[in-house]
Write a structure and sequence with these properties.
Layout lengths: L1 H27 L48 E6 L4 E6 L3 E2 L7 E4 L6 E7 L4 H11 L3 E12 L5 E10 L7 E10 L2 E9 L8 H8 L3 E2 L1
Antiparallel strand pairs: 1-2, 2-10, 3-4, 4-5, 5-9, 6-7, 7-8, 8-9
């Protein structure tokens, strides 16, 4: 009888041990959460924002060229126009036109200097053309220095420089600012000159007058 109780007790203890081992295993094992399928190449994931398409540069309109504005002059101007050669030149309004048989146009200030001569001459260079124009009015000893290229308001390329020459009506040499531009194979020459003892050589103003040359 004692053996039977002993066997029953041993069996009961074994069953408790088996149950004690299996219960924690059952409680620890949780069903695994299903993994989310990986995104296919080129497809955005749920956490990634789809990239925005590159911005296209906005089309801008080309600004239209502003209309040509008249050049503001430092003097009240009169204007000489040559219909024959198709150009015009502005000069101070108080300079009076003088009769001339050897130049297109000749004007002088109230004190007779400065003077403005507009001529048409031939020559390989500006210096040669100015010498020819001065010789036509009876002048001589023309020297041109500080010669350089320039551009007129209308875009015409020209050449200008300073110099001296003798005028038949003056015992003293004149200081001059000369500008020339080619037109149909000839030079259009603008010469503004003065006798320094009577009226100073104002290169800025003389250049301003000469640079009003404009072809029509």
């Amino acid at each position: 009888m004692f053996d039977g109780k002993y066997r029953f007790a041993v069996l009961f203890i074994v069953m408790l041990l088996v149950l004690g081992l299996t219960l924690p295993a059952c409680t620890c094992q949780q069903p695994a959460e299903p993994e989310e399928p990986s995104a296919l190449p080129g497809q955005p994931t749920e956490t990634e924002e789809p990239s925005a398409p590159p911005e296209q540069p906005a089309e801008t309109e080309e600004p239209s060229a502003p209309p040509t504005q008249p050049v503001a002059l430092s003097f009240e101007a009169a204007e000489y126009t040559s219909d024959e050669y198709g150009f015009s030149v502005k000069y101070p309004k108080d300079w009076e036109q003088q009769p001339s048989d050897t130049t297109l146009f000749y004007a002088a200030a109230p004190d007779q200097v400065p003077i403005l001569m507009i001529s048409v001459a031939e020559g390989a260079t500006l210096a040669e053309a100015v010498a020819a124009a001065v010789e036509e009015v009876g002048g001589s000893n023309v020297t041109i220095k500080s010669q350089s290229e320039t551009t007129l308001v209308d875009g015409t390329e020209a050449t200008h420089g300073t110099g001296k020459f003798k005028h038949p009506e003056s015992p003293l040499a004149l200081d001059a600012f000369c500008l020339g531009a080619m037109k149909d194979g000839k030079w259009i020459i603008i010469t503004v000159a003065t006798v320094g003892l009577v009226a100073k050589f104002d290169e800025a103003k003389f250049s301003e007058i000469a640079h009003t040359l404009e072809f029509k």
